[in-house]
Amino acid sequence: MAAASVKVSGNLSIKDENGVVQNDSGTDDISVEISLLNEQQDVIKSNRSQLLGSVGLDGSRHGFSDQLSASGAAFVVVHIAKPGYTDFARRFEFAETIELSAELLELPEARISAAEAQTISGVTVNGFNVSVSDNSLGETGNALGEELSVFIPQSALPAGTDSLNVRMKAYDPTQPEEAAFFPGAYEDSDGNKLLSIAFNYADITTDTGVSLRQVAQKTRSERIKAQKSGRQQKTQAADPVVINRLVPEESCNSLAVMGDSDKSLDGFQIPVYTYNPTSGLWDLLGQGSLFDEAGQIIPADFKSFACSSVSYTLEIKVTNEIFISNWWNLDYPLVFEEPQTVCANLKLLDEGGLPLVGAYAYVSDDDNDRSFSASSFVTDAQGQLKVSLVRLNNDDTDSSANLSVYSVVDGTLLQKPIELSTAACANTAPVVPVTLSIPARCTLEGKLLNPDSAPFSDGLIIAYPENGDEFIYSGSYAYTKADGTYAMNLFCAQDYRILDYTSWVSEYLSDPGLTKQPLANVNNIKGADEIVDDGKKVQFKDLTVSLKPWGFVYVAGDDNSLLEIDLYYSGKNFPVVYSFDVIDTRTSQVIKHFEGTVEENAFESFGAMRSATVSIKHEVPIPPANEYLYYSIKGEVIDGKNTKGVLQGWIFNSSNIE
Q: Are 43 and 149 contained in the same domain?
């Protein structure tokens, strides 16, 4: 089976609790992981990708792009995380191109001390109790009226826990702005499509910094070990964690249609799921019982929900293993004897008529009645989108839906009304064009060559706006193919600097600026760096990649006794030789010289770039603490064909850095 390849790219914004973009939150602690899964849900390829830096000149958005290949790939799972923020998690059926506009939202934080509180059913919990409502987070004594309340008994936590640090948020899946945070697919691990009633995120640590995820993983490990050995666990089972979740009013309307989910239990039951970040699917955790605002359990056969005047709260009793995942979800599996499917066959276009390839879309009912399920989709290589949803009641003929697409230009939520039908489910159904408010784009094509004029494959080409516009479309990233060619979409009639990323990092230490990069503008005027410009497409001049090796030297080790040399090289001419002087910045005198040779097997690949780290003991006198003296590094790196690059760095006492 031939390997299939997917390109995943997009823009990432980081926002505070109020949804305001943070330009100074830092990106070093952001992880971007992209995985390919086969039909059996096994991970067959996974990459940790690097952010490409800001794609907005105001620093408000950050680009990411990666390309993965594997035989038998059927699904793509994307996970982006930053401590203190909600995750961005998505699962897609395999597609050649996926473009995303991702957001990480800062979570409110509260420190919770032990206290006594009462759940909606009247259960008294002595432990740590927290509620969130309208983004306000704090201790709770009673769950009534709160969006989300979590009651954690002392017995479910490590001994000696005095307080908890809690970050938590409740989401309403009927609101497109909040549904955009829904992680993974609307599907469980048994293959059932899901109807989300409410979903939530929680990140909780003890006062000693131990994550409840770690506590839960230990509990699960001990339980599984005891089960496998056929013995009982020595420790007594902890009291249950109790979760109370207010059912959003719009979701409440679905309860009468979907009904009680477990006839073997007393009262009206709704399933509860936790998110599996590996598969991007949801695992059934158990059932929750529904109560009214008076604390009375709702009977299993109840149908007369007064959603606009009465609040309904689901109470869930689980072990602390629920904290293995940050996300949990109230869902109905859509299992019907005779399911009726309604569809739409769409083609998403920008204002210039160019297809939106790999665009992420969410389709839901356009009113509060929820006549059919909701789900997310990705457009194919032609910009087409095959929407398929399940009716919740076959007697309900409402087919009006809302299409939501997050623009990867600026993160704006774009919405359009669409109509669903059973006829559109046929393979021969006509395609309906949908034009979104995204400016017209044109095409740039070109080729990247090695210094010997051979094609350079897997090279990353980035288009960067020259005229100060804040955002660029994520289609302005492209990887070169085996023949060195690339193609990307740009906004028409706008200046872009075309940056060969491999050359840029190779030359970075000697010339970190972008101003010398060649210029492109698809405007029907042939520029100096363009071969052809017909106003719709530019054939750009061939670019020749720079294969200079380069590196950086810094102090390492707890006692500052090591020098570490990070070397980077995209060529094939090994070995690589480094040499550098340590220079006293006060006197400009050379106080130490180092040199060495690094063979090819010491380098690891990431994309077209390779890197190696060399650690060496040194006898350079380290500046004493509290003295801001440092030594500079000046040197060079040379490959096997005498191509020279820069090696630089500094030596200082790391304790002087606050």
A: no
